[in-house]
Amino acid sequence: DHRDLHSFPTRRSSDLAAAAEAILDGDYGYMLGVKKNDIVRVPLSEVAGKLKYVDPKSSIIKEAEMTGISFGVKQKN
Q: Residues 36-60: pLDDT tens digits?
């Protein structure tokens, strides 16, 4: 179920390897995400045009901000 899926840009080698494997397998039109700590391929047709709301105080947002990802909100110092 796509509602259990978390996806955001990362630089983990396992994520890059999974992306490379998808390309080698010819699986275009998919996004990669993490579901229950497993990297999964999800058809874009299942997620395109759908909104997923994330709690701005969630750990995934804090982790993304620690890596330098900006969500257009000024950070408190």
A: 878 899 999 988 888 878 888 888 8
